[in-house]
Amino acid sequence: MKTALVWFKTDLRIEDNETLIKAISQSQYIIPVYCFDDSHFETTSYGFKKTGSFRAQFLLEALEDLDTNLKKLGSGLLIVKGKPEIEIPKIVQEYKVQKVFVKREVAYEEKQTEKLVQDELFKLRCELETCSTSTLYHAEDLPFSIKDIPDVFTNFRKKTEKDAVIRKPFEKPLAISSHEIPEFRLPFLEELGLKKIKSDKRAAIPFKGGETEAIKRLNHYFYETKSLSKYKETRNGMIGADYSSKFSAWLAMGCISPRYIYAEVKKYEKEIGANDSTYWLIFELLWRDFFRFMFKKYQTKFFLYSGIKTEKVNSKSLNEKLLSQWINGTTQSDFINANMLELKLTGFMSNRGRQNVASYFCNELNMDWRLGAAYFEEQLIDYDVCSNWGNWAYLAGVGNDPREHRWFNIEKQASDYDKKREFRNLWLK
Asked: Where is the Photolyase/cryptochrome alpha/beta domain (predicted)?
């Protein structure tokens, strides 16, 4: 009568969830659990919240959807709040759990938490099994060991595309047997120390958390609008729902997997046709993989001022006034201001915008890049530890950029990507 606990984190889905599938195959009963980790709602050493209201709201919606989908299979989601190394072992004892299944982490703090839980479970003679569920390519299938992964994306991409295969996504389970799960109750934003968010009608897309919404978005972007076929041409857009896929928030929370998206792209290419744009979406998923594997390779280095380089060109200063102007969209650049206001009011910003505001922060304001990355961590609805810190280090010149120093001419960027000032007019009214 084996009982397993599935500890959900940023893998809030039923489709293509190896953790869930493995637990079901090895056990008779499953206890699906989500723990609101207290440390995720603290203020960081940079003075920003680790999780802001936009992402927290998206998380609450995703958990509600996950509970609904688990209930359809005969189970449900048990919600706890506190420190995982205390809360998870409590449930293990209560339900006499023999094994805990969880997604594998690569970033420093997440790995620390995983280790603390594992140590406590060891005392209870309960095993912790981790599964790699976040990438397009499985780490074991890469044509190099983690320590030998090329530091330049192009070299990584070419060899990986040539020599590695992408595994098929796991089918969703048909049924789950569970012990009786306590009534589902989510904390309110206020209980997490956060304020309710107001929606802004100018937002590019009304993001709503959950696997159901993720699949709905994919169907809209692929099949209803066929926007995928012109993704490469439109991806540098800045206004509206369909200039880019907007999958990032659902990917970050694991409401959809990269392999599921890949399988759908392949299906789309068969039915509607393949072109540069359909490939480009896979190319972007590969960037996401690259940063995750870089974190496995370099571990804590991405959080250091000097990143993965030994020398640092930018200043390490903090100018409260300049930081406040950047956050509140009152700098001397209207293009930067429009982007920063979009982020502040919606929790989202286009890829083009992100590159510009990060370059401005590092090169024009000449401040410690990690402050910018920490503000993004609080604010972004689609925050992903590896993509966020990896991209910031890249733009600060201390990451994986093969060029010594990447500097954006903000005025030129504004005239190239917001020629008619539509974006600036939208946000600077």
From this structure: 2-136
